Automatic annotation (TrEMBL), chains A, B:
It is found in: Cytoplasm. This is Proline--tRNA ligase. Its main location: cytoplasm. It comes from the Bacteria. Its EC number is 6.1.1.15. It catalyses: tRNA(Pro) + L-proline + ATP = L-prolyl-tRNA(Pro) + AMP + diphosphate. GO terms for molecular function: proline-tRNA ligase activity. Residues 33-464 form the Aminoacyl-transfer RNA synthetases class-II family profile domain.
Length: 567, 567
């Protein structure tokens, strides 16, 4: 590709409304152009990157036995009514009416369409398993589109849906997809982690999110320093620590006027947060008050709290008046001693000895409190959100926490959709059973932005090789004036093309400084500078995007050098 | 691809609601599946064909210097208000509101988005010409979707838009696109014609439609038997015939009670339709009545009538009461003699001698009427629709008329959009001028259906080589029982794959008859049957989709034979 015939539209100005670096660089490098909030045109340079991602995803999906099809963008409401999601789905589902006033939506996801398809196409277990995928434009009416294509309304997604006779078969495909996703992100050269995710209300035994690590990520991911373990921070298990053997001291009550927080207790009375308890009350749907007890420095994890046995969902934090009625004390003086309520204690809090907690009497605390001796009835559960340095639940290493951008999600759907939509097959015994399903998504366009979050410097984007719009750019200096330069550039360009290299030549009538800056901004992995002076010495200058200096390579060796460098 | 792992979903039943053969065969072969009226899923087999068409289109667009980008499906109303089309476009434009109640539409075409893009990206003539294309899902809310994907609501289109400093530059790109389109349809192996089309209200000096010839086409195309000339029947010029020299006979009036049609005149009074006139009255927007006179056997062409000088648009057929007031006669007895109205005569009618026409008195006609002698004031114009056998307006051969399916359209837009949306550049003189634009569309998914209309037989589809989902299918007979067959089939499959052939193996557990029938229905160009008996003779059976019999080919020569046959 010659840049004289290709629209390179870079700018030095940082767009005011772009909050994250990838959004800024994508606009500055001319990869995308905004049409409306969360709706972008992919410019030629950006589209090349998208196509590179699509190619890798398509190849690996096919390698893993998935078959490509293409479902419509516009979907009839009837199918969504069958699954029940026409009512359930919020305003992110963009609904519309056709000229005959019939209801449709823009597909944010395709479970309904594919389940309806499988229902009519697949009658027997003999046709199973089947895994269909598509790479398609989707629309979700985000309330606050932001970060450019990272959270846009229109985006390109690879979504796959698998159909099975039973759970065993689903598990096989599920792990094959897990492996395919890992291969995809490896091939794209990205720093990612498969992360255990919440299986949510659908159930199913497994769900993994694939996160790319980046400071601008919207999720916190906990990793083991010693193993592959990674989980969303919300979901990572906090282990039961070992108890340090210490003799019980006599229980004491002391006055703590006005000290209503863990911090105040630490500051004024020298009680370390790690040695005090915080007692929170939640109220379940039946109105039952339950005390949740954590170590002073720990945070309640609401997802974990919802999993406590015997509580009616949803839970909410109890009102102070209700708590005062039950305990006799206000917030800030609560504790598990002599409490007329169910007490659930976090694991870390449950191993404390001679600790401090509220006395259930305003402005009073207890010290040298001990489980068993002072509180007879309590349950222990995992209630807190893990923090960096916690032992990893996998048993190896400690947890580290980083921010991640979710770019993939694999999910065991089970029979949620096939039951609702009556998508059954005859099994090996001739019995009609709902098909077991899995679904597997990758955010194609989001990957492009996330890759930039991971790979950039002050001068611009640094594309991983597999994603780069061009592998190498030739920059001839003074091509218009020097026939030597023009001839050498043309020859090298032709030779690299012949060698199958995705090569570009910046033959625009621009100053060398502009070309160098553009080449760095748009993130081409390798550039070859062809100037008269160096040609007279028989060399061209080759510089990798991450290199601080150029390397002189003889003209004869240039093709082989470039081929080697970009492969 | 092994069919055991690929969803082949054929059926013998002809779907009741499919009117045309391509729609029937696409459903029967399992290429598409209907989701709603005019909305289809492309099944894996069908998608392979779509991708093949896309690949050829993409390559030829790039060869012709066009650059690919991707514009959004969902477009903001603001842009359409700028161009004026938000009001003008009818209910085919699918309008919707987002969660914030802002107006959007699903793009049926992208002039507004690309003009807005060019407006902000291109400031100087130095960046021109530029030709952008995309291959994209579009939506048009057809009032009556039909013929499957031929006239669907959601479809895939290649649309391109070029930008120029002036008309000369546009013309260059226009003809380059004309050539690229011809190459595309040639490569796809289709029978097509570039057809001169109406430039309509936008103007511009040229517009061509590309039509594929097929009986189910919705347009009538007139071709020269001797040249490349082709035009939409509505637009083809009817030439002025030479006049046969004959002496004028004396004018006579005769009674024709109840004979109010050309047919009645012919039947009862022996007047050939080719020798009588029909006189029609149109009324222009100012209320002026104009008589349009044609030969009895010819049809008025309304597009041509609208081009008569001096008439205010729109025209409509005059009411009989108005005509009777003006002429004194009812419909069926009208003629141009002694008429107090403007008379415009079609070329073919203007060379008749001693002809018959209505006498402008009910139930009376005139015979031996002659132009000049009996009618002094009249104008001659091209008013009729051409018919088969007319001399071609190109001067060579006569016209033949066939039905065509429009699969491409190239168009000179001029400055319609750039003026409305203020998309200007600085020209060579530093003056701000609106960019001159062209647009170029190809109906990707429609081509798939049209190709089937052209290429099928009683057994199913017959894909042109470049479009076929697989180039060759291997059909091993009794693979489960015969290790010889299994080994030979596996080896041939591997060798063909290694040779770069798009090969499939039908390793499903189905009877040979089912496999043969499916192979013909889905239209694979070549099949290789591998059976134990023929293997014992050292051969396999190779049969082209259009062949009536198979050819025995030795096993050693099979790869070379297939490679040669499908290349």
């Amino acid at each position: 590709m010659r840049f004289s015939q290709f629209p390179i539209s870079t700018t030095k100005e940082t767009p005011a409304d772009a909050e994250v670096i990838s959004h800024q660089l994508m606009l500055r490098a001319g990869l995308i152009k905004r049409i409306a909030a969360g709706i972008y045109t992919w410019m030629p340079l950006g589209l090349k990157v998208v196509r590179n991602v699509e190619r890798v995803v398509r190849e690996e999906m096919e390698n893993a036995g998935a078959v490509e099809l293409s479902m419509p963008v516009v979907q009839p409401a009837e199918l969504w009514e069958e699954s029940g999601r026409w009512e359930q789905y919020g305003p992110e589902l963009c609904r519309l009416k056709d000229r005959h006033d019939r209801d449709f939506c823009l597909g944010p996801t395709h479970e309904e369409v594919i389940t309806d398809l499988a229902k009519t196409e697949i009658k027997s277990y003999k046709r199973l398993p089947l895994n269909f995928f598509q790479i398609q434009t989707k629309f979700r009416d985000e309330i606050r589109p932001r970060f450019g294509v990272m959270r846009s309304r229109e985006f390109v997604m690879k979504d796959a849906y698998s159909f099975h006779e039973n759970q065993d078969s689903l598990e096989q495909t599920y792990w094959r997809m897990h492996e395919a996703y890992s291969t995809i992100f490896d091939r794209l050269g990205l720093d990612y982690r498969p992360v255990e995710a919440d299986t949510g209300s659908i159930g199913g035994s497994h769900s993994h999110e694939f996160h790319m690590l980046a400071d601008s990520g919207e999720d916190d991911i906990a990793f083991s320093t010693e193993s592959d373990f990674a989980a969303n921070v919300e979901l990572a298990e906090a282990l039961l620590p070992e108890q340090v053997k210490t003799d019980f001291e006599p229980l004491e009550c002391f006055d703590t006027p006005g000290a209503k927080t863990i911090e105040a207790l630490e500051k004024r009375y020298g009680v370390p947060a790690t040695h005090s308890l915080k007692t929170l009350f939640v109220e379940d749907a039946q109105g039952e008050l339950v005390a949740l007890v954590l170590r002073g420095d720990h945070q309640l994890n609401e997802i974990k709290a919802e999993k406590i046995d015997g509580l009616s969902q949803p839970l909410r934090m109890a009102q102070e008046t209700a708590v005062k009625t039950a305990t006799g004390a206000s917030f800030g003086s609560l504790g598990p001693v002599n409490l007329n309520a169910r007490v659930v204690v976090d694991r870390a809090a449950s191993v404390l000895v001679n600790f401090v907690c509220g006395a259930n009497e305003d402005d009073k605390h207890l010290k040298n409190v001990n489980w068993g001796r002072d509180i007879e009835h309590y349950e222990v559960a995992d209630l807190r959100t893990v923090v960096a340095g916690d032992p990893s639940p996998c048993g190896a290493g400690v947890l580290e926490i980083k921010r991640g951008i979710e770019v993939g999600h694999i999910f065991q759907l089970g029979t949620k959709y096939s039951e609702a939509m009556n998508a059954t097959v005859l099994d090996q015994n001739g019995k009609s059973v709902p098909m077991t399903m899995g679904c597997y998504g990758i955010g194609i366009t989001r990957i492009v932005a996330a890759a930039i979050e991971q790979n950039h410097d002050a001068n611009g984007i640094i594309w991983p090789a597999a994603m780069a719009p061009f592998s190498v750019v030739l920059i001839p200096l003074g091509m218009e004036k020097s026939e030597t330069v023009a001839a050498a550039a043309q020859a090298l360009y032709a030779d690299l093309k012949a060698a199958g290299i995705n090569v570009a030549m910046d033959d625009r009538k621009e100053r060398p400084g502009v070309k160098f800056a553009d080449c760095e901004l748009i993130g081409i992995p390798l550039r070859v500078t062809i100037g008269e002076r160096s040609l007279n010495e028989g060399v061209v200058e080759v510089q990798g995007r991450r290199d601080s200096e150029a390397t002189n390579v003889t003209i004869d060796a240039a093709v082989a050098y470039v081929v080697d460098a970009v492969s």
